[in-house]
Amino acid sequence: MGSPMISHLLPLMAILLATLTQISYAQNSPQDYLKIHNKARSDVGVGPISWDAKVASYAETYVNKLKANCKMVHSKGPYGENLAWSSGDMTGTAAVTMWIGEKKYYNYNSNSCAVGYQCGHYTQVVWRDSVRVGCAKVKCNDGRSTIISCNYDPPGNYIGQRPFDISPFEVPLSFNHGSFDDK
């Protein structure tokens, strides 16, 4: 009696295992990186960014150099660059989500980060002039840690420039201190 039930469960277990395996590989494809970047860009009125194989190759070559010591050191190459490190496995979308999470520290009026906080990863993600991106992920030689790099072409985060423009009609009250003068 137990045997027929097991024979019915095996295909279900195989489907479940295949689904879980797919999930573990998900969130690291070019489409995954683009989807989350373009959502953040759309939220501030910036056009979409596209995947670039040359930029992705640069990111992959560079993170492969980092995997030996697993230290986050910027390449100082020709592209804008965001790096993420995790002591375990981190997905590409988790890294980009972390960078986008810096949005709350970016002050549009002063075009600066809140004191004591970083926001440059976020501003690079939404930098209006960056139109190509390439990302790569590597497991470090310690067998546990992960480093992810996204590179942006052309680079952003130029001092004195804003990553995007907000029209005066779109500025939230928190950006203009909530006052309107009729003078």
Explain what you see.
The chain is an alpha+beta fold. The chain has a domain at 28-153: CAP (Pathogenesis-related Protein p14a, 3-Layer(aba) Sandwich), CATH 3.40.33. Helices cover 37% and strands 16% of the residues. It is built from five helices and six strands. The strands form two sheets. A four-stranded mixed β-sheet has the order 1-5-6-2, sandwiched between helices. Strands 3-4 form a two-stranded antiparallel sheet. Helix 2 (30-43) runs parallel beside helix 4.
Short description:
With 183 residues, the protein is an alpha+beta fold. The protein contains five helices and six strands; from the N terminus they run ααβαβαββαββ. It has helices at 2-25, 30-43, 53-66, 92-100, 120-125, and strands spanning 50-51, 80-86, 106-107, 112-113, 132-139, 146-153.
